[in-house]
Amino acid sequence: MECTVHWVADAGMAMMATTGSGHVITMDGAPEGGGRNLAPRPMETLLAGAGGCTAYDVVLILKRGRHQVTGCSVQMSAERATTDPKVFTKLNLHFVVTGKGLPETAVARAVTLSHEKYCSATAMLGRTAEITTSHEVREAA
């Protein structure tokens, strides 16, 4: 896996990342740090990546179990250390999974498997942060 990050000098503290798969991600800093608030902060991007990683796992696990999952979102909140490096110290991930006839036990199992076995992003973040999870199941219309 590769990624190249370039500072966009004429845009304050904006950074452009080009991923190995050819996609571009823009990041920016807070105005008080010289940024212009034109894009997510790098740590917000890290948090979003972790959410995407674990949601991917949950959907894949449910689909492999032949469950009719039609939606999955992860509402995340994070706390950071007050001194540098300001790593994440607490993360809460609340999964909202929608489907037809989804058993609550299957959703709980998928969330647990992602958290304990498959999600490399949350496994890394778990080295500095206490991670808690919760979930709810909604019936699809």
TrEMBL record:
Pfam families on file: OsmC
Residues spanning the membrane: none
Protein's UniProt name: Osmotically inducible protein C
